[in-house]
Write a structure and sequence with these properties.
single chain, alpha/beta, 7-stranded parallel β-sheet, 7-stranded mixed β-sheet, globular, NAD(P)-bd_dom_sf
Length: about 425
């Protein structure tokens, strides 16, 4: 059956969905698109507000009524579009039924999940069926996995040699240092609470999903101390980054190894702060969060009093537009490896000399949590529509780096209106003394 629309934004009346609609006016302007959700009045209000904000008449934008709890409505929605942009989280609760419905309808699916259990469970359960149906299911299509995963691809493409390891350092700040309300929406907090509470599920999922281990690459990338300073980011205070970046990048590296026989890159992710007070505050929140998430009553407290336990960082209302527009991010990549002339014949071969080349790259942008996220999410949908022949195989459940490595996704993200900048800062060979 012919698809009536190119793209549908599902969950358009939610916090992320509203911003996806606003960005969609520009990013999807050459495509046919609509919005979906369970409440027609709310969806009409979203279109009205987005139209006023973008000075665009959206009155004729198709509205589709679909409810997570009504599989027939999901089926009818999925059958109307080529790509479904799913903004309904937490995905561990609401994602699977949409993924399954899309695959059965022959509809591609993208989302902004940062939940490793959900993403890897979807790959375990539906990768073969997605390949059979010719459908791409790509999660983690927002901030921060798009910068980290496609940033690693960018680093490899510009290294001119063999990358052994990559360390990423994420920094975020507000222009002018003005603070004006919470910086995260409650939905992100909720996903993190349940993700950490059920982190133990990952071992079982991975033992089924990844039956063969990736080859051991040496030298092994060592973990940094819990708190350390790094001259890569001008001696800022650094902590391990708690997000899904490492697991997403590692999944992409596995695809590259299995499909292209490329030597897997090791990766560790960190977050950097300019003040010791910020480090102490974040560490305190992380410790309390980690302890409480392990118990049902602790989760009750975290979910019902997010402002209290995040020191005001999280709220049901989410960050103000003023704060989002002033928020900037920078992700710095430090890559270590060997120059081109020392390339090995096989990815499983071992080097007999230490790494002798470094490269530092950066991905920067604005409004990462919502504006940048929605731009990346919608460009993921557009890329599937326009460049699916450059993607692996004919379908599958994939992380964004593996899905879009051979497409023009990075150059599209880097166009002026889209707000991302990918750049090489320095590259040099290490001379032995």
């Amino acid at each position: 059956m012919a698809k009536k629309l190119d793209v549908i934004i599902f969950g358009a009346s939610g916090f992320t969905g509203k911003y996806a609609v606003v960005e969609g006016v520009r990013v999807l302007k050459d495509l046919s698109w609509g919005i979906a959700g369970r409440n027609k009045e709310k969806l009409e209000k979203v279109l009205k507000e987005a139209g006023e904000k973008t000075k665009t008449d959206l009155s004729k934008t198709p509205i589709i009524i679909a409810d997570i709890k009504d599989e027939n409505s999901l089926k009818a929605m999925a059958e109307q579009c080529k790509v479904l942009v799913n903004c309904c989280g937490p995905y561990r609760f609401y994602g699977e039924v949409v993924v399954k419905t899309c695959i059965n309808a022959g509809t591609h699916h993208v989302d902004v999940s940062g939940e490793p259990q959900y993403m890897e469970q979807m790959q375990l359960k539906y990768n073969d069926l997605a390949k059979e149906k010719g459908v791409y299911v790509v999660s983690a299509c927002g901030f921060d996995s798009i910068p980290s995963d496609l940033g690693t691809v960018f680093v490899e493409n510009h290294f001119d040699g063999v990358v052994n390891s990559v360390e990423t350092y994420l920094e975020s700040w507000q222009e002018g240092g003005n603070t004006c309300g919470a910086a995260l929406h409650y939905g992100t907090w909720e996903s993190a609470v349940y993700g950490l509470a059920h982190a133990g599920e990952l071992h079982g999922i991975r033992s089924q999903l990844f039956k063969e281990k990736l080859p051991l690459t040496e030298p092994k990338l060592k973990n940094r101390p819990l708190i350390f300073k790094s001259d890569i980011v001008d001696n800022a205070y650094c902590l391990p980054f708690p997000g899904s970046d490492r697991s997403v990048v590692r999944r992409s590296q596995r695809v590259f190894y299995e499909n292209d026989k490329k030597r897997p890159v090791q990766m560790n992710a960190y977050i950097a702060f300019r003040s010791l007070a910020a480090v102490i505050g974040v560490t305190l929140v992380a410790v309390v969060f980690g302890l409480l998430s392990k118990f049902s009553f602790g989760r009750y407290l975290l979910l019902n009093y997010p402002k209290l336990f995040s020191f005001g960082f999280v709220s049901h209302e989410g960050p103000s537009e003023e704060k989002m527009e002033k928020t900037k991010f920078k992700m710095t990549f430090y890559a270590l490896g060997w120059p081109k002339e020392e390339t090995l014949a096989e990815p499983t071969d071992k080097y007999t000399v230490p790494p002798s080349k470094t490269l530092i790259a950066r991905v920067t942008g604005a409004n990462p949590g919502y504006g940048g996220t929605c731009v990346a999410l919608l460009l993921s949908a557009v890329t599937i529509l326009k460049e699916h022949t450059k993607m692996p195989g004919s379908g599958g459940v994939l992380p964004p780096g593996a899905a879009f490595a051979k497409t023009n996704m990075v150059s599209e993200l880097a166009k002026n209106d889209n707000g991302f900048v990918f750049e090489v800062v320095s590259a040099k060979e290490i001379t032995s003394e």
